[in-house]
Design brief:
The protein is of the alpha/beta class. Helix content is 39%, strand content 25%. The protein has helices spanning 10-27, 44-59, 71-80, 96-120, 168-176, 199-210, 240-245, 253-265, 281-287, and strands at 31-36, 63-68, 87-88, 91-92, 125-129, 136-145, 153-166, 180-184, 186-188, 194-196, 214-219, 234-236, 270-275, 294-297. The strands form four sheets. It has an eight-stranded mixed beta sheet, with helices on both faces. The longest helix is centred in the middle third of the chain and has 25 residues, at 96-120.
């Protein structure tokens, strides 16, 4: 009698492996940039599953590059230090004191935990921030508001930055020696100023700079949903403005799609918004015919 585990037979396992074969062949030696964040960074089972996924990708011939967030972890430390957090349009206002905490948490604790998990799973991960080797050149981000016909008001977010350029040579050196880069989204300005940068934006910029095969954003939602709550499995970039005008795309999904579009314009072939709460979401998207989440492709 065939032993079953979770109702999956040996034949099912063999079929899954065979289904993955053409994708392994197609994507061999291709770069996949993964933005790692949300619930997948907190749930212990998902954390270990993500590390296993990354190592598997490396062993079957992919070149994964990980960019991680860490907003909740930063918030916890700030709260313990009695430092109040202020958000404007979803971005944390970052003064000097807050920036010190951001750098300590992202570049230290969170980054090293991810590196350790990947290494424990059998990979060769190296942690770095955008300051290392001049990886991420940044500039101060400013947003403007205009109300009631008044002149535009510039909102100062402090040390919140935007990506100006990526030094791909740093990542190429790591790729040559088969290391898996794990990147904290911190950049440096021309004056040496340190900037806190949205991890989605960093992942999109790195994907474009490397001409990645795929950009994958792990989130806490299934993907992009239509007006009736159904998952949109594929979106062409040219359709995004109309979906935004219809209100189908709004809130936090807007910047995620914007960074996907920029990555595709820069040479990334496809972008994916996946539910990181689903175990092994990355493998399910890459190695199965049906995939999961929302795929963004060029018009």
């Amino acid at each position: 009698m065939t032993e079953k585990r979770n109702d999956i037979t040996d034949e099912d396992r063999a079929r899954i492996l065979v289904e993955a074969l053409p994708y392994i062949r197609q994507f061999a030696r291709k770069t996949v940039v993964i933005k790692y964040g949300g619930h997948a960074m907190i749930d212990d089972r998902l954390r270990h599953g993500f590390a296993q996924d990354v190592v598997l990708l490396k062993f079957v011939g992919f070149d994964p590059v990980i960019v991680h967030g860490g907003g909740p972890q930063i918030g916890q430390v700030l709260e313990k230090m009695s430092i109040e957090s202020t958000f404007i349009d979803g971005m944390r206002v970052t003064d000097n004191q807050t920036m010190d905490v951001v750098e300590m948490v992202l570049g230290g604790k969170v980054n090293k935990e991810i590196v350790s998990l990947i290494n424990q799973a059998g990979g060769k991960a190296v942690g770095l921030s955008g300051k290392d080797g001049g990886l991420i050149s940044a500039s101060k981000m400013e947003i403007t508001r205009q109300e009631g016909g008044q002149p535009p008001e510039i909102i100062d977010l402090g040390q919140v930055g935007q990506v100006e350029s990526i030094n791909r040579a740093v990542l190429e050196v790591l790729k040559k020696d088969n290391f898996i880069p794990v990147i904290a989204p911190i950049g440096t300005g021309p004056d040496g100023q340190t900037y806190n940068i949205n991890a989605d934006l960093v992942a999109g910029s790195i994907a474009a700079a490397l001409g990645a095969e795929k950009l994958i954003l792990l989130t806490d939602v299934e993907g992009v949903m239509d007006s009736e709550g159904r998952l949109l499995s594929t979106i062409e970039t040219g359709r995004i403005p109309s979906l935004e005008a219809e209100g189908v795309i709004s809130g936090g999904m807007l910047p995620k799609l914007a960074c996907c579009v920029e990555a595709i314009k820069g040479g990334t072939r496809k972008a994916h918004i996946l539910d990181g709460r689903k175990p092994h979401a990355v493998l399910l998207e890459i190695f199965t015919d049906h995939g999961i989440g929302t795929e963004i492709v060029e018009k």
